[in-house]
Prior knowledge:
about 20% helix
Amino acid sequence: MEYTELDPSIKKEDTLGVILCCECGVAITPNPSNMCVTCLRNHIDITEGIPKQAVLHFCRNCERYLQPPSEWIQCALESRELLALCLKKLTGLKDVKLVDAGFIWTEPHSKRIKVKLTVHGEIVGGTVLQQVFVVEFTVSYQMCTDCHRVEAKDFWRCYVQIRQRCENKKTFFYLEQLILKHKAHENTLGIKQMHGGLDFYYANENHARKMIDFLQAVVPVRTTSSKRLISTDIHSNICNYKFTYSVEIAPISKDSAVCLSKKQRQQLGNISAVCLVHKVASKIHLIDPTTAQIAEISSNVYFRAPFEGICNPKQLVEFIVMDIDIIKEKDRKICPGQGAVSFKHVLCDVWLVKASELGINDNPIHTKSHLGHLLKVGDSVLGYNLIDANINNETFDKLNNNEYPDVILVKKFFGDRMSRYNQRLWKLKHLAEDEQEERKKTDYQDFLEDLEEDQEFRQNVNIYRDTSKHIPIDTAAKVNDDSTPQITLAEMLEDLVLEDDAMGEVE
Length: 507
């Protein structure tokens, strides 16, 4: 009997190669199991060996997930890294073929992560069955090993001490900004401010060595190390040490006056005995104020024969320019073996009078200076008065009076410090915010003024807009005023501030 006799709606050509399902009697195409897809799914589950629930361990302190057996990795919600971690937790996936996987949205605070999986599996007779199912992962809080050490107050394995022992700490303030800009402190467990510097704590010695390499690349430093035995395993011959690195920054900063020995002067191209520190970077950059000759001293050369500043910015005296005469290049006296000369500076003859003696002393002081491109008659300038200064330096005491000028001009004076502070619309970030006594001192204010006066100097510093100060209406007029240097708004960065609104959402 044909199917057309039972049901006239079925055509004869549709019944060719069709059988009835052995379970429900539905007409299907022949297959080795002789069952339809619905009956196959009811009798056979290809996902039987795959768990439908699992647990993910999450550390709330560092926001990392545990990847067995002992690795903690950083994963964002619904990221590829988190999906790979979830799939590794499912042991039965090796028996089927994974076709597709994706997240199902859940409330972020529900501690539930749902993953939708599509798999293919081969059953009796070579029949391939596709099945879609959902696996629910429960997020369980567990503190990682590093955070355990932090809570135990015995977490650090290595720490780096950075110190600069001098009166003028501009180099230290500049180094702090370099660390922030290049994020060299991202692997630190803690930063503690100490007298004369900072301490950086690390859980891994490799991270501390990376910090040492960064310091040696940006400023002249000298490093010493030591280690202390904590415990020893005599069976496996494994020792546990704590390492300490002491980093000493050269006690030389920008705008300090130094006195060089005869041997050092010969090695630097017969430069003058008394020079100014023009810049401190990976090397110490010196300039001769009487000839505009420049020289560089590397870290190894400096610490082989170290020298200290004979005058610091705290000893600067204000002078008034009475007359100035630019010295042309053809009129310069070139000494045999003289080194390189700076083309950014202009050599000049200057006649000065102390600001405190203006109108009283009619005998101006003559000196040579490298600031001819900045000064004009009537300007105020800061300099070191070597005649009246009390200098306690053995190398300087051996010099004759004609080997150094009476006055060394350092920089142009742009007015009262308090007025410049009130006009300052920017700020800097710091590594340690708990103690700010060092930043209230004069040398830190000098560092901020150097950033305003030297555009090249502030290229390696992140400067942020100070939202606590409002921009005055006549800001444009003040910016165009050449009397006081200022940092433009285009050079300032907007500081990211996360605030909670009334609904509890983060803006």
